[in-house]
Amino acid sequence: LSNRTLCACIRQAFSAAGALPELLPETVREHYAALPHTAGECVACGACESRCPFGVPVIENMKKAGALFGA
What we know:
Layout: H1 3-17, H2 26-34, H3 47-51, H4 58-69
Helix pairs in contact: 1-2, 1-4
């Protein structure tokens, strides 16, 4: 799973839409849909959070992305 790619996409989506799906630009939806892995694959094991040097709440972000993009 390319966490950096997915995180960048999610970050852009959250800032663009403020977590409101109707405000999400179609280009962001298309970019997310083209990713080889999506938030729906997250099993919330926490392994990525414990390794993240920046303290990113990855599990929470994956849940938000799933809700926003329809995992």
